[in-house]
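Throughout our pipeline, every protein is held as a single compact record rather than as scattered files. Nothing more is needed to write down the fold, since each code stands for a local backbone conformation. The record that follows is passed on verbatim for readers who wish to inspect the format.
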Amino acid sequence: MSISESELLQVEAYLRRRLNNQSVRVTRHAIRPEMGEVFLGEEFLGTIYRDTEDGEVTFDINITILQEDLNAV
């Protein structure tokens, strides 16, 4: 199921509050309407999907961390 624009904005606002960071950005994926993308500034963090189970709506975020990024810390 597609993620609506209003849901993307709600998730973005939630993440900004929870992470205390206004540079979090959530956008619709350019090709796949069922997923969004999460950015910190211009850096891609991961993908977001909408899920409905037992009448509840959840948003699942998959954050990608490259091994080379861990070595840079």
About this structure: The first helix runs from residue 5 to 19. The chain has a mean pLDDT of 92. The beta strands are 24-28, 35-40, 43-53, 56-63. Residues 5-67 form one domain.
